[in-house]
Amino acid sequence: MKTMKKTFLMALMVLAATAVNAQSADDLISSKTLDYLRTVPFAVNRTTLYTAEELYAGYDPQKAETFETCYDTKVYKHFIATGKQAQTAEESLARALHDNGIHVALNEFFKKYNSRHCLGIMGGHALLRTDPMYKKVVLLSKRLTEQGFIMLSGGGPGAMEATHLGAWLAGRTEQEVDAAVEILKVAPSFKDKGWLATSFEVMKRFPRKGDYVSLGIPTYLYGHEPSAPFATHIAKFFENSIREDLILTVAFGGIIYTPGSAGTMQEIFQDAVQNHYLSFGYASPMIFLGTDFWTKEMPVYPFIEEMVKLGKYKNLQLTLTDDFDVIVKELEAFRNKK
Prior knowledge:
Number of helices: 15
Low-confidence stretches: 1-11
Structural class: alpha/beta
Mean pLDDT: 92
Strand order of the largest sheet: 4-3-2-1-5-6-7
Order of helices and strands: HHHHHHEHEHHHEEHEHEHHEH
Largest sheet: 7 strands, parallel
Helix content: 40-55%
Number of strands: 7
Shape: globular
Protein backbone atom coordinates (compact mmCIF):
# COMPACT_ATOMS: atom_id res chain seq x y z
CA MET A 1 0.00 0.00 0.00
CA LYS A 2 2.81 2.42 0.88
CA THR A 3 4.53 1.68 -2.42
CA MET A 4 1.34 2.35 -4.35
CA LYS A 5 0.81 5.63 -2.50
CA LYS A 6 4.40 6.69 -3.16
CA THR A 7 4.02 5.91 -6.87
CA PHE A 8 0.78 7.88 -7.00
CA LEU A 9 2.40 10.86 -5.31
CA MET A 10 5.32 10.78 -7.73
CA ALA A 11 2.91 10.66 -10.67
CA LEU A 12 1.03 13.65 -9.29
CA MET A 13 4.25 15.61 -8.91
CA VAL A 14 5.19 14.94 -12.54
CA LEU A 15 1.72 15.89 -13.75
CA ALA A 16 1.73 19.03 -11.65
CA ALA A 17 5.10 20.04 -13.03
CA THR A 18 4.05 19.50 -16.64
CA ALA A 19 0.74 21.34 -16.47
CA VAL A 20 0.81 24.86 -17.95
CA ASN A 21 -0.12 26.40 -14.61
CA ALA A 22 1.97 24.10 -12.42
CA GLN A 23 0.76 23.37 -8.92
CA SER A 24 2.32 21.35 -6.13
CA ALA A 25 1.41 17.71 -5.51
CA ASP A 26 -0.05 18.79 -2.16
CA ASP A 27 -2.50 21.01 -3.99
CA LEU A 28 -3.59 18.11 -6.15
CA ILE A 29 -4.29 15.73 -3.26
CA SER A 30 -7.42 17.48 -2.14
CA SER A 31 -11.17 17.18 -2.23
CA LYS A 32 -11.11 19.81 -4.98
CA THR A 33 -9.06 17.49 -7.19
CA LEU A 34 -11.30 14.52 -6.51
CA ASP A 35 -14.37 16.62 -7.23
CA TYR A 36 -12.84 17.73 -10.52
CA LEU A 37 -12.13 14.15 -11.57
CA ARG A 38 -15.77 13.28 -10.88
CA THR A 39 -17.14 16.15 -12.96
CA VAL A 40 -15.19 15.77 -16.22
CA PRO A 41 -17.40 14.35 -19.03
CA PHE A 42 -15.24 11.24 -19.45
CA ALA A 43 -14.28 8.31 -17.22
CA VAL A 44 -10.85 8.78 -15.67
CA ASN A 45 -10.87 5.14 -14.55
CA ARG A 46 -11.71 3.64 -17.92
CA THR A 47 -10.69 -0.02 -18.32
CA THR A 48 -11.93 -0.89 -21.83
CA LEU A 49 -11.58 0.41 -25.37
CA TYR A 50 -14.47 2.38 -26.83
CA THR A 51 -17.07 1.09 -29.24
CA ALA A 52 -18.84 3.31 -31.78
CA GLU A 53 -22.00 2.96 -29.72
CA GLU A 54 -20.22 4.37 -26.67
CA LEU A 55 -18.49 7.22 -28.49
CA TYR A 56 -21.71 8.27 -30.20
CA ALA A 57 -24.03 7.60 -27.29
CA GLY A 58 -26.93 10.05 -27.58
CA TYR A 59 -26.61 10.42 -31.34
CA ASP A 60 -29.65 9.62 -33.50
CA PRO A 61 -28.79 9.27 -37.23
CA GLN A 62 -32.30 10.49 -38.02
CA LYS A 63 -31.72 13.71 -36.06
CA ALA A 64 -28.52 15.44 -37.15
CA GLU A 65 -28.69 17.95 -34.29
CA THR A 66 -28.14 15.17 -31.72
CA PHE A 67 -24.49 14.95 -32.81
CA GLU A 68 -23.88 18.17 -30.86
CA THR A 69 -24.93 16.52 -27.61
CA CYS A 70 -23.54 12.99 -28.02
CA TYR A 71 -20.77 11.72 -25.73
CA ASP A 72 -17.88 12.26 -28.12
CA THR A 73 -18.86 15.84 -28.93
CA LYS A 74 -19.27 16.68 -25.25
CA VAL A 75 -15.75 15.40 -24.53
CA TYR A 76 -14.29 17.28 -27.50
CA LYS A 77 -15.96 20.54 -26.44
CA HIS A 78 -14.54 20.03 -22.95
CA PHE A 79 -11.10 19.38 -24.46
CA ILE A 80 -11.21 22.65 -26.42
CA ALA A 81 -12.62 24.63 -23.49
CA THR A 82 -9.89 23.44 -21.13
CA GLY A 83 -7.09 23.90 -23.68
CA LYS A 84 -5.49 21.55 -26.19
CA GLN A 85 -2.61 21.70 -23.75
CA ALA A 86 -4.20 21.31 -20.33
CA GLN A 87 -4.25 24.61 -18.41
CA THR A 88 -4.48 23.10 -14.93
CA ALA A 89 -2.87 20.17 -13.15
CA GLU A 90 -6.32 18.72 -12.39
CA GLU A 91 -7.21 18.58 -16.07
CA SER A 92 -3.78 17.20 -16.96
CA LEU A 93 -4.29 14.48 -14.36
CA ALA A 94 -7.77 13.64 -15.63
CA ARG A 95 -6.55 13.23 -19.21
CA ALA A 96 -3.50 11.22 -18.15
CA LEU A 97 -5.63 8.81 -16.14
CA HIS A 98 -8.03 8.37 -19.04
CA ASP A 99 -5.22 7.73 -21.54
CA ASN A 100 -3.51 5.32 -19.16
CA GLY A 101 -6.74 3.34 -18.98
CA ILE A 102 -6.86 3.19 -22.77
CA HIS A 103 -3.25 1.97 -22.80
CA VAL A 104 -4.08 -0.82 -20.34
CA ALA A 105 -7.09 -1.81 -22.43
CA LEU A 106 -4.91 -1.89 -25.57
CA ASN A 107 -2.46 -4.22 -23.86
CA GLU A 108 -5.34 -6.59 -23.13
CA PHE A 109 -6.53 -6.32 -26.74
CA PHE A 110 -3.12 -7.25 -28.18
CA LYS A 111 -2.74 -10.25 -25.86
CA LYS A 112 -5.34 -11.99 -28.03
CA TYR A 113 -3.41 -11.68 -31.28
CA ASN A 114 -0.04 -12.54 -32.81
CA SER A 115 1.77 -9.21 -33.16
CA ARG A 116 2.68 -9.93 -36.80
CA HIS A 117 -1.03 -10.18 -37.62
CA CYS A 118 -1.49 -6.47 -36.88
CA LEU A 119 -1.33 -4.26 -39.97
CA GLY A 120 -1.61 -0.51 -40.34
CA ILE A 121 -2.99 1.43 -43.28
CA MET A 122 -1.96 5.07 -43.45
CA GLY A 123 -3.33 7.72 -45.80
CA GLY A 124 -5.08 11.03 -46.19
CA HIS A 125 -7.97 12.05 -43.97
CA ALA A 126 -9.30 14.12 -46.87
CA LEU A 127 -9.73 11.13 -49.21
CA LEU A 128 -13.30 11.35 -50.50
CA ARG A 129 -15.66 8.41 -50.50
CA THR A 130 -16.16 9.06 -54.22
CA ASP A 131 -12.44 8.72 -55.00
CA PRO A 132 -11.48 5.40 -56.67
CA MET A 133 -8.69 5.02 -54.10
CA TYR A 134 -11.29 4.90 -51.31
CA LYS A 135 -12.85 1.74 -52.69
CA LYS A 136 -9.38 0.28 -53.36
CA VAL A 137 -8.50 0.66 -49.69
CA VAL A 138 -11.86 -0.85 -48.69
CA LEU A 139 -11.29 -3.93 -50.87
CA LEU A 140 -7.66 -4.33 -49.77
CA SER A 141 -8.56 -4.08 -46.09
CA LYS A 142 -11.45 -6.52 -46.58
CA ARG A 143 -9.18 -9.06 -48.23
CA LEU A 144 -6.47 -8.76 -45.59
CA THR A 145 -9.02 -9.06 -42.78
CA GLU A 146 -10.38 -12.23 -44.38
CA GLN A 147 -6.78 -13.52 -44.51
CA GLY A 148 -6.59 -13.24 -40.73
CA PHE A 149 -4.94 -9.85 -40.30
CA ILE A 150 -6.06 -7.26 -37.75
CA MET A 151 -6.38 -3.90 -39.49
CA LEU A 152 -5.63 -0.67 -37.66
CA SER A 153 -5.49 3.02 -38.54
CA GLY A 154 -5.65 6.48 -37.05
CA GLY A 155 -9.39 5.95 -36.73
CA GLY A 156 -10.55 9.06 -38.59
CA PRO A 157 -12.15 9.75 -42.00
CA GLY A 158 -10.73 9.24 -45.49
CA ALA A 159 -8.32 6.32 -45.97
CA MET A 160 -8.66 5.54 -42.28
CA GLU A 161 -12.42 5.08 -42.54
CA ALA A 162 -11.97 2.98 -45.69
CA THR A 163 -9.67 0.66 -43.72
CA HIS A 164 -12.33 -0.02 -41.11
CA LEU A 165 -15.16 -0.25 -43.62
CA GLY A 166 -13.23 -2.99 -45.40
CA ALA A 167 -12.74 -4.90 -42.16
CA TRP A 168 -16.42 -4.39 -41.26
CA LEU A 169 -17.52 -5.85 -44.62
CA ALA A 170 -15.22 -8.89 -44.39
CA GLY A 171 -17.07 -12.01 -45.42
CA ARG A 172 -19.43 -10.16 -47.75
CA THR A 173 -19.56 -10.06 -51.54
CA GLU A 174 -18.05 -7.35 -53.73
CA GLN A 175 -21.61 -6.45 -54.76
CA GLU A 176 -22.40 -5.72 -51.12
CA VAL A 177 -19.25 -3.61 -50.89
CA ASP A 178 -20.44 -1.64 -53.93
CA ALA A 179 -23.84 -1.09 -52.32
CA ALA A 180 -22.26 0.10 -49.07
CA VAL A 181 -19.93 2.55 -50.84
CA GLU A 182 -22.85 3.90 -52.89
CA ILE A 183 -24.72 4.71 -49.67
CA LEU A 184 -21.66 6.53 -48.32
CA LYS A 185 -21.14 8.55 -51.52
CA VAL A 186 -24.14 10.71 -50.58
CA ALA A 187 -21.74 12.49 -48.18
CA PRO A 188 -18.25 12.26 -49.77
CA SER A 189 -16.37 14.28 -47.13
CA PHE A 190 -16.51 14.20 -43.35
CA LYS A 191 -17.40 17.88 -43.64
CA ASP A 192 -20.61 17.03 -45.52
CA LYS A 193 -24.01 16.72 -43.92
CA GLY A 194 -24.91 13.08 -43.51
CA TRP A 195 -21.35 11.71 -43.28
CA LEU A 196 -21.94 10.03 -39.93
CA ALA A 197 -25.59 9.16 -40.58
CA THR A 198 -24.70 7.23 -43.74
CA SER A 199 -22.05 5.30 -41.80
CA PHE A 200 -24.67 4.10 -39.35
CA GLU A 201 -27.00 3.33 -42.24
CA VAL A 202 -24.37 1.01 -43.73
CA MET A 203 -23.74 -0.64 -40.37
CA LYS A 204 -27.46 -1.29 -39.97
CA ARG A 205 -27.95 -2.62 -43.50
CA PHE A 206 -24.78 -4.72 -43.45
CA PRO A 207 -24.20 -6.01 -39.90
CA ARG A 208 -20.74 -7.33 -39.17
CA LYS A 209 -20.23 -10.98 -40.05
CA GLY A 210 -18.22 -13.39 -37.94
CA ASP A 211 -15.68 -12.22 -35.40
CA TYR A 212 -13.65 -9.93 -37.66
CA VAL A 213 -12.30 -6.90 -35.80
CA SER A 214 -10.34 -3.72 -36.49
CA LEU A 215 -8.72 -1.12 -34.28
CA GLY A 216 -9.03 2.65 -34.68
CA ILE A 217 -6.65 4.95 -32.76
CA PRO A 218 -7.99 8.51 -33.05
CA THR A 219 -7.28 11.58 -30.93
CA TYR A 220 -9.22 14.50 -29.51
CA LEU A 221 -6.55 16.83 -30.91
CA TYR A 222 -8.25 16.23 -34.26
CA GLY A 223 -11.67 15.94 -32.70
CA HIS A 224 -13.21 18.06 -35.45
CA GLU A 225 -12.77 14.96 -37.61
CA PRO A 226 -15.30 12.35 -36.47
CA SER A 227 -13.99 8.92 -35.53
CA ALA A 228 -14.84 6.15 -38.00
CA PRO A 229 -17.67 4.11 -36.44
CA PHE A 230 -16.78 1.03 -38.52
CA ALA A 231 -13.87 0.25 -36.18
CA THR A 232 -14.98 -2.44 -33.73
CA HIS A 233 -12.46 -1.25 -31.13
CA ILE A 234 -11.53 2.40 -30.66
CA ALA A 235 -8.60 3.65 -28.58
CA LYS A 236 -9.23 7.38 -28.44
CA PHE A 237 -6.52 9.42 -26.74
CA PHE A 238 -6.21 13.00 -25.55
CA GLU A 239 -2.43 13.05 -25.97
CA ASN A 240 -1.71 12.96 -29.69
CA SER A 241 2.04 12.40 -29.38
CA ILE A 242 1.38 9.11 -27.58
CA ARG A 243 -1.18 8.13 -30.16
CA GLU A 244 1.03 9.00 -33.15
CA ASP A 245 3.88 6.83 -31.92
CA LEU A 246 1.53 4.03 -30.89
CA ILE A 247 -0.05 3.64 -34.33
CA LEU A 248 3.33 2.92 -35.88
CA THR A 249 4.60 0.85 -32.99
CA VAL A 250 1.77 -1.69 -32.76
CA ALA A 251 1.59 -2.37 -36.52
CA PHE A 252 4.22 -5.08 -36.18
CA GLY A 253 2.91 -6.89 -39.26
CA GLY A 254 3.72 -3.96 -41.52
CA ILE A 255 2.24 -0.71 -42.79
CA ILE A 256 0.61 0.07 -46.12
CA TYR A 257 0.94 3.68 -47.21
CA THR A 258 -1.83 5.01 -49.42
CA PRO A 259 -1.75 8.50 -50.97
CA GLY A 260 -1.74 11.23 -48.34
CA SER A 261 -0.05 14.52 -47.47
CA ALA A 262 1.95 15.94 -44.57
CA GLY A 263 0.67 13.57 -41.88
CA THR A 264 1.35 10.49 -44.00
CA MET A 265 4.83 11.82 -44.84
CA GLN A 266 5.58 12.17 -41.14
CA GLU A 267 4.46 8.60 -40.50
CA ILE A 268 6.63 7.23 -43.32
CA PHE A 269 9.85 8.71 -41.96
CA GLN A 270 8.97 7.90 -38.36
CA ASP A 271 8.34 4.29 -39.35
CA ALA A 272 11.61 4.23 -41.31
CA VAL A 273 13.51 5.25 -38.16
CA GLN A 274 11.97 2.42 -36.12
CA ASN A 275 12.82 -0.10 -38.82
CA HIS A 276 16.34 1.28 -39.40
CA TYR A 277 17.23 0.90 -35.74
CA LEU A 278 15.28 -2.34 -35.28
CA SER A 279 13.67 -0.61 -32.32
CA PHE A 280 11.45 -3.61 -31.57
CA GLY A 281 13.79 -6.39 -32.61
CA TYR A 282 12.98 -6.55 -36.30
CA ALA A 283 11.92 -4.44 -39.26
CA SER A 284 8.37 -4.66 -40.63
CA PRO A 285 7.31 -4.26 -44.28
CA MET A 286 6.73 -0.75 -45.61
CA ILE A 287 4.38 -1.05 -48.59
CA PHE A 288 3.53 1.88 -50.84
CA LEU A 289 0.22 1.56 -52.69
CA GLY A 290 0.04 3.83 -55.74
CA THR A 291 3.08 3.73 -58.04
CA ASP A 292 2.42 7.03 -59.80
CA PHE A 293 1.64 8.90 -56.59
CA TRP A 294 4.72 7.75 -54.68
CA THR A 295 7.15 8.19 -57.59
CA LYS A 296 5.80 11.31 -59.32
CA GLU A 297 3.19 13.29 -57.38
CA MET A 298 4.96 12.83 -54.05
CA PRO A 299 8.27 11.10 -54.90
CA VAL A 300 9.09 9.78 -51.48
CA TYR A 301 9.78 6.23 -52.61
CA PRO A 302 12.72 7.00 -54.95
CA PHE A 303 14.28 9.15 -52.22
CA ILE A 304 14.05 6.41 -49.58
CA GLU A 305 15.28 3.83 -52.08
CA GLU A 306 18.29 6.02 -52.86
CA MET A 307 19.02 6.46 -49.14
CA VAL A 308 19.00 2.67 -48.77
CA LYS A 309 21.47 2.32 -51.66
CA LEU A 310 23.74 4.90 -50.01
CA GLY A 311 23.58 3.07 -46.69
CA LYS A 312 21.82 5.94 -44.92
CA TYR A 313 18.85 3.66 -44.22
CA LYS A 314 19.29 0.02 -43.29
CA ASN A 315 16.94 -2.92 -42.67
CA LEU A 316 14.03 -1.39 -44.59
CA GLN A 317 11.70 -3.84 -46.37
CA LEU A 318 10.26 -1.70 -49.15
CA THR A 319 7.58 -2.53 -51.71
CA LEU A 320 6.03 -0.24 -54.32
CA THR A 321 2.99 -1.62 -56.15
CA ASP A 322 -0.57 -1.25 -57.38
CA ASP A 323 -1.18 -5.01 -57.22
CA PHE A 324 -3.14 -6.44 -54.26
CA ASP A 325 -1.67 -9.90 -54.89
CA VAL A 326 1.84 -8.54 -54.40
CA ILE A 327 0.81 -6.86 -51.15
CA VAL A 328 -0.87 -9.97 -49.74
CA LYS A 329 2.05 -12.20 -50.72
CA GLU A 330 4.57 -9.86 -49.07
CA LEU A 331 2.60 -9.56 -45.85
CA GLU A 332 1.81 -13.25 -45.57
CA ALA A 333 5.48 -14.15 -46.12
CA PHE A 334 6.48 -11.78 -43.33
CA ARG A 335 3.72 -13.06 -41.03
CA ASN A 336 4.88 -16.67 -41.51
CA LYS A 337 8.56 -15.86 -41.13
CA LYS A 338 10.18 -17.58 -38.18
